Amino acid sequence: MRVICRPGVLLPPLIRAIDWVPVGAAAVVSLGLALVTTPGSAVEPANAMVTLRMAGVLLGAAAGFALVDAAAVTTAVAPVPRWLRQWIRTLLVAGAAAAAWAGTLLLLMVRLADGTEMRTPGLVTEAAVSLLIGLACTAVAVRQRPERIAAVIGAAALLVIAVSTLPYVEDVWPYPASPRWGEIHRAWLWVLPTPLLTLALAHRDVGR
């Protein structure tokens, strides 16, 4: 049980076992989008927000691949519960995705038109919810089928959710000048506990 008290022991094998390619590719695409948004001219806040929202959904879809437990064989010999392994994976990939999204935000802020600013708190909330929903969808699929196809299913679920909200842009993805900006993002905050609870349930040891 000492391993449970020292999760740092698990970090090296889990870092090696995680499939970093999808989230790495998503990070490259996100940063690239920040560079090519309105090339040759200053970026308007509305265009920057579209780019950041695309990056959030893309990173959320890619992050789930880290939850496919390729380390199950190597960690089975130690008294390490599944929930601990999966939460460490979740924190590692969430940190990487958050760093990529923050880098995208910084690149866009440098290129903003003079005298404009981003409504950053609301955008951070959107990105966090997108990431957590992507992870939660994959966590549920991985619990049922611990294979790479589960991550594909989770990514597809997030993309379907995102696309299905497009007809309701003003109610879900408001523009900077929207008078309902604060109201809508309070609703985003209310959504936040749902994917967290889903992750907690999906990360339980199998059989519970």
Automatic annotation (TrEMBL):
This is ABC transporter. The chain crosses the membrane at residues 20-42, 54-78, 90-110, 122-142, 149-167, 187-203. The keyword Transcription does not apply. Keywords: Membrane, Transmembrane, Transmembrane helix.
